[in-house]
């Protein structure tokens, strides 16, 4: 199937919006992607005629909601090529998923002086949970810096692994630079468990957890064209067997008495309470939409956008792009001498162009680059070359204002 970007754009109602009298150019999908009509309709339908709590009722609506909710587990497993659907644990997003691993798997196993290897590319969601273990249990965080171009060679990560290393936690794609990290090569190069934050990578390219060989893989729904509050953590059966329960409450138990509690089998063991039913249903619809387009087709379209945007941005000799590695997604973080990132974002917004400005929840990486903030343009499958041109025109206008 060929990729028709105009047909895809027609599926996203918000893209016909005008901002400040100009057509919306949405270049902030790295923060949160827009939603196609099929997802919006599925959410509306679920609330209007299919809603009830799951797992606990024997009536028609509860059974219907349970069926629609639970089938999403199989959809996610197919999307990630997971060996078993019971390895998919529903979460509210990657942040909860990584915290789940920190609390349920790492905390009871790690001793003072044990090490976690992290890269400076990480989002705070893959940093702060490990700081908790540093503060509370004396775990040592061992940092690996990227190359000046933002790339992170697997051998550099593996060189940081020592006899006390208990976990390697890496982004699969940087949310700041788009750098793709070969987490599979890292996993194949060591016996140490590997956690991959797939918040960005899963949106932009095919992901096959079976071939990657990692132990944990996080995805978040709101970046995958699904609702916020949806997501999943893929955890291999072997690692699930080593985990303790995370949250206590309904659904994660078999029986409770005054003296004892008997926990449910995974994955329900790690899914306490009434879940985000409709949001997860919406995520399932979003993933089916993506798989219908074909992730290889999505990746090819975005590579074209990346290459076109890279060439055009490089022609602006007064603009600096942080971390422009060869293997990267269509994400560009930029600085301009004399203009703060917030100024750039505000001026672009006046022209209908939405970009993000700030530290992008990646303060260690911006410190590495020596900049306080960047303006980030993050492209998605619904963006076009014409929107790259609009960005270039907007940046040129910014330059003229601050020259």
UniProtKB/TrEMBL annotation:
Names of required cofactors: pyridoxal 5'-phosphate
Main enzyme class: transferase
Domain Aminotransferase class V: 25-391
Native organism taxonomy: Bacteria, Pseudomonadati, Pseudomonadota, Alphaproteobacteria, Rhodobacterales
Gene Ontology MF term list: cysteine desulfurase activity; pyridoxal phosphate binding
Similarity comment: Belongs to the class-V pyridoxal-phosphate-dependent aminotransferase family. Csd subfamily.
UniProt-listed Enzyme Commission number(s): 2.8.1.7
Record's protein name: Cysteine desulfurase
Keyword terms, alphabetized: Pyridoxal phosphate, Transferase
GO biological process terms on file: cysteine metabolic process
Job description of the protein: Catalyzes the removal of elemental sulfur and selenium atoms from L-cysteine, L-cystine, L-selenocysteine, and L-selenocystine to produce L-alanine.
Organism domain of life: Bacteria
Cited Pfam families: Aminotran_5
CDD domains for this protein: SufS_like
Source organism of this protein record: Paracoccus limosus
């Amino acid at each position: 199937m060929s990729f028709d970007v105009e047909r895809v754009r027609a599926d996203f109602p918000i893209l016909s919006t005008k901002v400040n009298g100009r057509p919306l150019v949405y270049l902030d999908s790295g923060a949160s992607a827009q939603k196609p009509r099929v997802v919006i309709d599925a959410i509306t339908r679920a609330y209007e005629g299919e809603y009830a709590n799951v797992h606990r009722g024997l009536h028609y609506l509860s059974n219907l909601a349970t069926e629609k909710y639970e089938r999403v587990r199989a959809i996610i497993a197919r999307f990630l090529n997971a060996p078993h659907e019971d390895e998919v644990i529903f979460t509210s997003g990657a942040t909860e998923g990584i915290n789940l691993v920190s609390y349920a798997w790492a905390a009871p196993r790690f001793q003072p002086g044990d090490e976690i290897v992290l890269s400076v590319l990480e989002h705070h969601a893959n940093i702060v949970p490990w700081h908790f273990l540093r503060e509370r249990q004396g775990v040592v965080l061992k940092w690996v810096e990227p190359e000046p171009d933002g790339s992170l060679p697997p051998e550099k990560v593996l060189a940081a692994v020592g006899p006390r290393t208990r976990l390697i936690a890496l982004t699969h794609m940087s949310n700041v630079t788009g750098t793709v990290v070969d987490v599979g090569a890292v996993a194949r190069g060591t016996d140490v468990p590997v956690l991959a934050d797939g918040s960005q990578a899963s949106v932009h390219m095919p992901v096959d957890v079976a071939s990657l060989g990692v132990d944990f893989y996080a995805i978040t729904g709101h970046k995958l064209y699904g609702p916020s509050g949806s997501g999943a953590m893929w955890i291999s059966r072997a690692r699930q067997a080593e985990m303790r329960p995370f949250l206590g409450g309904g659904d994660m138990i078999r029986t409770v008495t005054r003296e004892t509690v008997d926990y449910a089998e995974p994955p329900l063991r790690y899914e306490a309470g009434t879940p985000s039913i409709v949001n997860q249903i919406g995520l399932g619809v979003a993933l089916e939409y993506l798989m219908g387009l074909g992730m290889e087709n999505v990746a090819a379209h975005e590579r074209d956008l990346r290459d076109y945007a890279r060439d055009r941005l490089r022609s602006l000799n007064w603009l600096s792009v942080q971390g422009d590695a060869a293997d990267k997604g269509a994400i560009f973080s930029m600085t301009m001498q004399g203009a703060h990132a917030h100024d750039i974002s505000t001026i672009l917004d006046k022209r209908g162009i939405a970009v993000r400005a700030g530290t992008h929840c990646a303060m260690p990486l911006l410190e590495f680059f020596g900049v306080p903030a960047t303006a980030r343009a993050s492209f998605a499958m619904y963006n076009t070359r014409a929107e790259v041109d609009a960005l270039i025109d907007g940046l040129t206008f910014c330059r003229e204002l601050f020259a």
